[in-house]
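Same chain as my last thread, 229 residues:
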Amino acid sequence: MSISDNIKSLKNELDTVNVTLVAVSKTKPATDIEEAYQAGQRIFGENQVQELVEKYEQLPKDIEWHLVGHLQTNKVKYIAPFISLIHSVDSLKLLEEINKQAEKNKRVIDCLLQVYIADEETKYGLGFDEVIELLRSDEFAALKNVRIRGLMGIATNTDSEKQIKEEFYELDTFFDGITQSFFRKEDSFDILSMGMSGDYKIAVEQGSTMVRLGSTIFGERVVKHFKNN
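reply #2:
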């Protein structure tokens, strides 16, 4: 199936359950993104700042760009003028830098707090207790140019559907608790970003409102093998 066929079929599937599709276009050429764009896709996710900036400059300006990979504080300034949503906020320090750069650009930048749910040594994400601590802090209360739209999580890379389901269930339950405790009066706190190509169906069952799909749309990444002559 072509990229545009994949987009159309996914949109049919996800629109019925009110789930937003982020097309993860990292490492993909602009031509692939254009094909997805022509099929009606407007939200694209990148995980490298440099690649994101280059694509932003080349491609249509009504694309909503999401940063889905780890973000270093010294790179925030490059995406602050245009980024639509940052999925991967994993510290107060990063949030403060996003706020500072958003203020310089006279913007409010939407962010998700990345929560650590996987049972593996991945490097990034806040623990459940750290999320609560951050949201309760005076430092957070002082930030006027960021808006927390929800939470993001990445499940363990495992064949165990039971484990993936439990991790997503925990994050969904935590999301409900955080909504009640901190965002009860804010309708804008409405994004639970969980699910990638291998596990998005489970994520949707467990309450995800936004999925991040790459290979399901664009096909597997091509790895070049060079033969030794």
